[in-house]
Amino acid sequence: MQFFALLTRNTEKFSDADFAPLLPGEAEQRRTLYAQGAVRQVWNRGDVPGSGMMFEATDDKRCAGISPPCRWSRPA
Fold first, then answer.
1. What's the number of domains the chain is made of?
2. Is 51 in a helix, a strand, or coil?
3. Would 74 be classed as within a structural domain?
4. What pairs with residue 15 in β-bridges?
5. What does the pLDDT look like over 28-54, one tens digit per residue?
6. pTM listed for this prediction
């Protein structure tokens, strides 16, 4: 099954300077998940800082376990 996650940064609580040191690690995590086949597609959002990701998983619980939640983000 495919699951679409629309991600956004928690800009109400954190500044761009807070996010800056985390961005290289996030990019590497995306590449790793793609290489593992857990993520099929990634899009950068144009409306707000964040991304859209298409996950491949057997069910929603498996999808939720692919990438742990990050304290820097919030559900859109």
1. 1
2. strand
3. no
4. none
5. 988 998 999 999 999 999 998 888 999
6. 0.73
